[in-house]
Specification:
Order of helices and strands: HHH
Radius of gyration: 13 Å
Largest sheet: none
Number of domains: 1
Number of strands: 0
Number of helices: 3
Helix content: over 70%
Distance between the termini: 22 Å
Shape: elongated
Structural class: mainly alpha
Length: 50
């Protein structure tokens, strides 16, 4: 049970880190990568949780 909690916390931290990185991309880089910064939540969730 503790292992499950630890894994969930690590995933949550990875999600927050990924979301923050995507949301803070400069607009020109985001456009080059074809990323809409408003989709940062969805992209981060997909990257971390599958």
């Amino acid at each position: 049970m503790l292992n499950t909690f630890y894994t969930a916390m690590k995933k949550r931290a990875a999600y927050a880190r990924t979301r923050r990185a995507l949301a803070s991309l400069p607009i020109d880089i985001a456009l080059d990568l074809d990323i809409y910064r408003g989709d940062a939540d969805k992209i981060a969730r997909q990257a971390v949780y599958g």
